[in-house]
Amino acid sequence: MFLSVFDMFKVGIGPSSSHTIGPMVAAAQFLDHLRAQPFAVAGLRASLHGSLAFTGVGHATDRAVILGLAGFRADDFDVVKADVEMDRIVAEKTVTPDSLPPLKFDPKDDLLFDYGPALKGHANGLILKATDAQGDVIIQETYYSIGGGFVLTEAELAAGKDVNTGPPAPFPFTSAAEMLDMAIQSGKSVAEMKRVNERACQPATDLDKGLTRIWEVMNACIDRGLTTEGILPGGLFVRRRAKGIYDALMAERGTNMSAPHTINDYMSTYAMAVNEENAAGGQVVTAPTNGAAGVVPATIRYYLDHVPEATVAKVPDFLLTASAIGGLIKFNASISGAECGCQAEVGSAAAMAAAGLCAVLGGTPEQVENAAEIALEHHLGMTCDPVRGLVQVPCIERNGLGAIKAVSAASLALRGDGVHLVPLDAAIETMRQTGEDMSEKYKETALGGLAVNVPNC
């Protein structure tokens, strides 16, 4: 099994990897499909299904689809250009993607939110259609946004294709048990095995540059969040809090006002800064999703800013280790809140962050696996219940607590020798089963939990 670190950590935009980035990716794929057709296309239509419909407005799915069909991409998204283009599309009722003629598309009439049963393939379904000059549908494709910005067509899903497939990997572990066996046999760390796998399909210089960029984008996101005030969009009037908390922490530093547990406030604030940026539609890195994007960078920032003798040179090992754990969770369960609730998002992120931190603090492969298991185990059963469908409440604070759990899990694992009762594989399988049993109203539909018990208008 090979899932690249750059599949797990993707530069994109907020507020959601499955509801914003995924639909934009699907739109780009559909445009590529149209460009390969020999006949003329005159218009476009789209329909959102399942969780994409129920929480689509709060997650900006409609905007993502419209801009995606206009040719915008998440990895180089320009907010200013996007705002100008949205106004033009609404006024002129056309989209103008490169290498295609102007296409009729009226967001009011041609984008449908279908609140009926979800499509059979996945909770996040999207149907895109192309029409001829008379308005008849001539091309139609169904896409599924399966979490973390990954997208499969209906045919790919039916054929059993998964994004986890890829080039042959020298260390093709598909379970934590296999990962540990290969580590023992090779004498390599998890990060070293992951690096070998990555270099099998790309030059070492590209890998190093890519890992550097991932951390630079993560860190810049934290810094923006720590210096920005205001009210988040969406109608809940949630106030950004990261800057105020961070400023207070800086004022207290070096005084007798700071208690030992204040370190938790730093971790929470770093994570909240990222998720406030995500909620505002800013640039983030999926880690493994946008809704959980704050946990991994907050844990890295904690390591760099608060751990003696920490060095940025170890950040690549952190990211490689974390992506290996994330790949196991995705391959054997899910990282999608629409499939398994928030245990699959913040729970997975905490497991990844715990493993990465344990690794850079000198943990053995066995301790790394233990750290990931502890973090995931104590997120089992967590629901995804965003108030008003926005990635704000409880999502922003939840990332802070996820980072705290990640650091605690890594610390506990380092206090042991790697021998423990519950294997990571068992925790992953439990998460999968729990997700299957979980009511749909607790899986990113905003139909249960806090989403219906907190006044949101």
Protein described:
By secondary structure, the protein is α+β, with helices and mostly antiparallel strands. It contains 20 helices and 9 strands. The strands form 3 sheets. A 5-stranded mixed β-sheet has the order 5-2-6-7-8. A two-stranded antiparallel sheet has the order 1-9. Strands 3-4 form a two-stranded antiparallel ribbon. The radius of gyration is 22 Å and the shape is globular. Helices cover 51% and strands 10% of the residues. The protein starts with a helix and ends with a helix. Strand 6 and strand 7 (137-147) form a beta hairpin. The protein folds into 2 domains: 15-158, D-3-phosphoglycerate dehydrogenase, domain 3 (60s Ribosomal Protein L30, Chain: A), CATH 3.30.1330; 176-453, 2-methylcitrate dehydratase PrpD (Orthogonal Bundle). Helix 2 (17-35) packs parallel to helix 4 (61-69), helix 16 (346-360) runs parallel beside helix 18 (395-415) and helix 17 (365-377) runs parallel beside helix 19 (424-437). The protein has helices at residues 5-8, 17-35, 51-54, 61-69, 79-92, 107-110, 154-158, 176-186, 190-199, 204-226, 242-252, 262-279, 295-306, 315-332, 337-340, 346-360, 365-377, 395-415, 424-437, 450-453, and strands at residues 11-13, 43-50, 94-95, 103-104, 111-114, 124-131, 137-147, 150-153, 283-285.
Gross CATH architecture of the largest domain: Orthogonal Bundle
User: What strand line-up does the widest sheet have?
Assistant: 5-2-6-7-8
Q: What overall form do the CA principal axes indicate? A: globular
Continuous helix count: 20
The H/E string reads HEHEHHHEEHEEEEHHHHHHEHHHHHHHH
Kindly name the structural category.
alpha+beta
CATH class (first level) name of the largest domain: Mainly Alpha
Distance between the termini: 46 Å
Mean pLDDT: 95
**DSSP strand (E) fraction?**
5-15%
